[in-house]
Amino acid sequence: MENFSNKNIENNCAEALQSSCFLPPKEVICKNMKKIKRISAVISAITAAAVAALSTGWDECSVSGADEREIIPESSTGTITIYPDKTASEISPYIYGINDKGDMEGVTATVVKLSGAEISSYNWETNFANGGTDGKNRHIDYPEKAYSAGDENAPGKLADNLYVRSLTGNSPMRLLTLQMMGYAAADGSGVVSSDELSRNTRWKKVLFSKEDTYLNKPDTKDNFVYTDEYVSYLVNRYGSANEGGMNGYLLDSEPDRWAERFSVLGLEKVTPEELVSRSVELSSSVKTIDSEALIFAPSLSGLQGCINLNNQTAWNNRSGADKEYSWFIDYYLASMRKREEDAGVRLLDVLDVHYFTEATTPMGVSVLTGSGDEARAYRMQSVRTLWDSDYTENSPTVLLNKQFTPLIPTLQASIRINYPGTKLSFSEYDFGGGDDMSGAIAQIDALGTFAKEEVYLACLSPVSTDYSFQKAAINLFNNYDGSGSGFGSKLIQAENGGSSMNSVYAAADTENPETVRVIVTNKNLINPQEFEIDLQTVRYSYTVTSAYTIDENAEIIPCDAEMFSSRSDNTISFEAPPLSAYLLVLSGSEEHSEVPAQTSETASESVTADTEATESMTAPSETVTSADSSVPENTGTAGSDSSIAVSSGDVNDDAVSDGSESGTTSISETLSESYLSEDPDDFSEAAVTDSPAQSGGVAMPVKVIVSALAAAVGLGVVYVLFFDRKK
User: What is the DSSP string of 288-335?
Assistant: First the structure.
C-alpha cells in the first residue's frame, strides 16, 4: 500500500500543477508549500490563543437576554435632538382616557367611558341588557354592580355608575353611549332565542324621538324605549354639558358588527344610507335637548369598518355620486355635513373610531393577545400603523388596504376634505401587553402619537384583565410623581434620527417654558442603548433635575440623577437598559447668551406670517384649555393644514412639515435657520466630543486583543516568507 506521507503529497501536488499549466520547477513549488504549511501553523496557533484569550473575558462583553436573539435588529446607540424653542400644537388633555371595563385603581384618567357589547342593547328604563354572542345571548341586569344608592329600580343606573366613577377619579369628561341599534332588552331573565315570538316579547323597540311629554320616571309598561327622553332625564339629573353633566354622547358602538353580535334579532347588516339616516335623527334629538353636548360617531370597529362598513355588498352597490367616495369615512363625513346644512345645526362634532391592532408576528401570533418575545417585539412596532407611511404591519386588513394607512393622517385628510372642523377620537383602542413592559412602551407610543397627530380624545380599552403596565404608561404622561405632575400642554419638536428601536416625545407647559419634559423608550429586547440628547437652543442651559422610570412591578419610581450626564454644550447622555422607558425633567437656566434681538424678531415674524397664511386657508385652529368639567367649544379644525408632524418615535426629515396641501411654509422650516445657524460655534463641541454612542458598540478590551492578534499574524507571515530559511 502506498505511503501517503507529507513528502509524497508535496511531490504529487507539484507534478499535478506542472502538468496543467506553466509553473516553476516542482522543487520551488514544494518549498513554497512548506512555507505555506508553516504560515498555516502560525495562524492556527495564534487563532487558538485568541479563542483562549477571548473566552476568559467573554462574559464581560456579552449581554444576557431572554434568548440572546435579536428578533428585530437592535440599536446600540440612540441620538436624540430636541428643539425647545420650536413648540408645535397644543396637546389635548382628553387623550389620557380609559374605558370603565375593570379595575381603575391607580390610574389618573382625564376621560372615563363605558364600553362592551351590552351597551348597544341597554334599556335605560329598567337597566336590562343583552351581551349578544359575546354574552351567550343572555338578557341580564346591567350593570350588575351599581354604584348609586337608593331605589334599585331607578332608571339610568349605567349613567350613575359612569358619573360616580368620573368624580372619584377626578376625570373632567364623561361620555355616555346612546342606543341606536333599534332594540333593547325587555327583561333580565337569561338566554334569548332567535324565534319570532322572542323578538316580539323579549325585546323593546328603541325610538329616537318621543314626540310627547318627557317623564322624570319613564313608563316601563309600554313597548318602546325613547332615547330623547333618556337625554332629558340625564340633563335634569346632572345638568347640561356646560353645567357639569354629560359632556358628550356616542351614537352607539360598532354598528358595523350589530348583525354579527345580535344574530338572535335576525338583523341585516346596516347599510351606509341607514347608518347616516339613524345618526342624523339621533343627533338632532340630542342637540334639541342639549345643544352644547358633543356628538361622537360612528364608532366603527376598526380599519375594515372605516373602509366599507364591514358590508362589502352594500358598499359595492352604491350608485351615482356616492361611488366617488374611496372609503366609507369619506361618505359618512360628507353626508353628515350635507345634512347639517339642511338641519341648521352641527350634527357631528367628533369622528370616532375604535382601533385594536390586528398586527401579527411573522409566525401569525397576534400582538394584541400574544405573549413571548416575538409578540413583544412586534407589539412595540405596531403603533406605527397609526402614523408611519413607511411601515406595513403583518395583517390581512392592512396588507390588502395599504392605501388607507397610516390611519390617522388618512382620517385627518378625510376630515379636511369632507367635514372641516370635525375633531378625531379613538374612544376604544388597545395594542396589548397590559401585563408587560412591551405593553407600556406601546401605550407610550400611542399617547405620543395622539399628541403629535392632534387627536382630540382617546380611551384605552384593555383586552387583558391585568393592564397595570398600560396604566403606568398613562400615569407617566399624566401623574408621574404621584402629585399630579403631567407631561406638558404644548408639544416640542423632538427627533430620534428615524430609529425604530426607540422613541422620544417632548413637551412643556405654556406658563413654564423653561422646563422641558422628555419621554424616551428603548425597544431593544436584549441590549441596552446609549442615548445622547442634544438640546438645540441658545436660550437656556439644561440639566436633568429629576427622572422617573417604570419598574418591573409596573410602578413609576424616581431614578438616580447620577445616571444622567449633563455637559456644558447642552447634551445629556445616559444608558437605558432593554425594554425601558424614562421621563426626564429638564430645567433650563439662562446661562447661555440671550438670543439676539434680530433672531427673536425673525422667529416671531416667521411664526406670525405662517399663522396668518394658514388661517387664511383653513378654519381657526383649536385651543385646548385646561381640563375642567366642561368641554372646549368645537371651534377648531382637527388635523388642520397647519398641523406639524413632530416628536415621533420614528420620524425622518421629510416628516417634519406642516402636512399642508396648500404649500404653506412650516414653522419648523421657518425657525430652523434663525435658531440653528445663528452661532454654529455654540454647538461645535458637541459634534467632536467622544461619547459611548460613537464607539460602535465594541468593548475596548476586545479591540485591544483583536488588534494585537492581527499584528502577530502579520509578523508571523512576514517571518516565514522572508526570514525562515528552513529547507
Answer: HH-TTSEEEEEEESSHHHHHHTT-HHHHHT--GGGGG-SSHHHHHHHH
